[in-house]
Input
Amino acid sequence: MVIFKKRNSFSGFIFLFLLFTPRLSTAQLTTNNSLTPNQLVQTVLLGGGLTATNVTYNGDPTAIGSFNGTSSNIGFSAGLIMATGNISNAIGPNNDGSQGSNFNTTSSDPELTGIASGSLNDAAILEFDFVPSSDTIKFRYVFGSEEYMEFANSTFNDAFGFFISGPNPAGGNFVNKNIALIPGTATPVTINNVNLSNNGAYYFDNGDGTGTGTAPDGLTVQYDGFTVPLIAISPVVCGQQYHIKLAIADVSDGAYDSGVFLEAGSFSSGNSTTLSSTINNPGGVTGNDSTIYEGCISGSFVIHRNPSSSGTAQTFFYSLNGTATEGTDYAAMSDSVIFAVNQDSALITINSLSDLLIEGSETVTLTLYVTSLCGGNDTLTKTIYIEDTPALKVSLNDDIVLTCPTPDLVLTSQIMGGVAVGGYTYQWQNYPASTQDTLHVYPLTTTTYILTVTDICGHTASDTCTVFLSSYTPMQLTMSNDTSVCLGESVLLESHVSNGLPVYNYSWSPNVTSQDSVTVIPDVTTAYILTVTDACAVTIKDTINVTVYPISASYSYTFVTNQTVQFNNLSIGGISYHWSFGDGSDDSVSIETNPEHSFPVEGNFSQYTVTLIAVNPKGCSDTISSVITIVPDFYFYFPNSFTPNGNDRNDFFTGYGSGIKSYRMRIFNRWGQLLYETNDILKGWDGTYKGTLVEFGVYSCVFDVEDFKDKKIRRFGDVNLMR
Output
C-alpha cells in the first residue's frame, strides 16, 4: 500500500509537465467543457422517447463535458464524458503511464462505496429525472482508466456506476439499481472485473504510455485501457417518472484518472416521434438552431416519426402561433404534414419575409399533435425566433498620406452588423483575387481602394481608403536590348533610371558591378538582372539576356594506311569547316566535315601542319592546327628465281618494296645450312657460298623487315637458282 501511495507525490509534477507538453492536433479524441450539465443532458445525451428534468451535477466543473471521438478509437463519434480528473486528460496519444488530475476532494456516495474497495475521491455525479415513452430505457457507454493494467486486481480500483430508481415493471421499485453490468450477468463493470485477465472480450488494451506494454501505445486516447462499447439497459413502466444517477470516482487516492464515455443521443426509450428545429443556411444565428433573420431564407421544424409507423402513410396535424404574423412575417402555411410510406422524417419550413419594420424578436411556435406510445394523445412544441436583420456597416482605414511608397501596406476592414453566419464575402475593386477582410498593397501612385462587403443575406456595404503619393513619381528603368556575342567577346550593358527618389543603388545578378553600366565577357548564355533601389526603398528591375554562341575547333585522326588519314571532326558549335592539309597537293583543302586525305612522302617520312577552322551560326570561328607525321605506305615482295650467270641480268637475288625501315635476308640450303645473310636490301645473293657457285636448285629464304610504324614482318619462301 505504501508503494502504491507514492504515485500521489508525483501526480502534480506530471500534470504540470503535460500542461506544457504539446499534444497531437489531428487523429485523436477531443473534449469540450463549455456546456452546462443541463445542456449536456438535453442536447448531447438524450435520444428519443423520453424527457428529462431536474438535472443536477456534483463535482469539479472540468470533470464533465462533451467529446468528439470521430478521429479516435473510443468507439463513439460524440457524446458526454465524466472523469475523475480534468476531461482533457483523456486526449491521446497515450504518452504517459500515470496521467491524472488530483482535485484533492474527498467524496461520499453509498452506491459507489458499495462497488469500491476503498475511500472515494474526486467524484463526478450527474443526476436527473426522466419519463420514458416505452417499456425500456438504454444507452451505450465505454469505461476507460489509467489504472489499467498496473492496478488491476488491487485496492486502487476507480469505481463508476449508473443507478436507476423508480417503478419496477415486475413489481415494487428500483432503488439505485446499477445497470452498468457485464453483458448477460449481474456483475458490475470495474477494473478488476474487465481487463486482460477477466472478461477480456470486453476489454481493449491501449498500451501503457511508455512503449513497454502488452500492446502498442494508442495514438488517440490517453487511457491505458478501456472497455468495448457496452449497453446499459433497464425495463421501465411507460409514462412513469424515474431518477438516474451517473457516478464515477477515484478510489483510495486521487491519482491516475478514469473516465466514462456516454454515446450522444443513445439515452433513449423506444422509438418515439420527435420534434426539433434546424436553420437552413444562410440566415441563422451562430450556434443557435432556432433563430433566423427576417427575410433571410428559412428555418424548419423537423419531425422524426416512430420507425414502427414507417410502413404506412401518416398525416400529422399542427398549429402555428406566436408573436410573428403568418402571411406578413412569414409565408402562409398549411395545418398538416403528410408522411409517405417508408418516409421517416419531414420538414415544416418557415420562410421569413422582410416587412422593413423594426419589430425586435418575434416567435413562431409550432404545436404538433401525436399519439403517445404510452397511449392517448400528446403534443410536441418547438419555437423558431425571427430577428430583425442588423444593418451592415464596413469601415476601412482612414486616408493615408505617404512621402515614399510603403511596401506591404495593410488595409484592414472592420465589419459591424449584418448576418455573419457562414462569414462575409469581400470584394476589393480591381483586386478580384483578394477575398479576405485585409488587403496587402504597394501603391506607387495615389490610389483609391474600394471594399464591398456582402453578408449571408445578400446585404452589402462599402467603404473607401485613399493612399496619397503626391510627390512621388514611379521610377522608370531602360536597359540595353538583348544581344548575342561569340565566346570570348565582350559586350557593354547599359542602364538609365529616371524619376523615383535619388540616390539610386544598383545591384546586378550575377554580381558584376554596383554601377549603372558594365562590360562583360560571358562564358555561357547569361541573363543579367539589374535591380535598382531608390531612396524610398522602392525597387525596380529589368533583364538583359546575352546569348553566347560557343565555338571550339577540335579534331582527331586515324590512319587508313601509312599515307591515308581519316580526320574526325570534334568541334563544338560549328556549322561549317575549312581544312588545310599543308601538303601543296591539288586537294590540300577541304570543306567536308570529316574528310579523308592521302599525303605524299619524301624519303623515310614527311611532316605536314593540318589546320581546321570551325565557324558557328553567328560567324564566330576557332582555329586549331597540329603537325602530322607521314611515313611511306609499306609493301614488300621477292622473286622466286634468279640466274647468276654473269650476264648482268637477274644475277642477284634480293627483296623489293617501299616503306622499309630495316631489312634482313637469310638463304639456307635444304639441310638448313646458312649460305648467305645481309641487312642491306641493295646487296643481293650472287649464288655463291664461300666464293664458290652453289649447285642449281631450290633454296630457302627468310626475310625479316620492319616498317616505319615499327611493325616487324617475317616472310618465308623458296628461290630457284637457275643457270
Remarks:
- The chain has six domains: 2-263, 274-387, 393-468, 476-549, 555-630, 635-721.
- DSSP finds four helices and 55 strands in the chain.
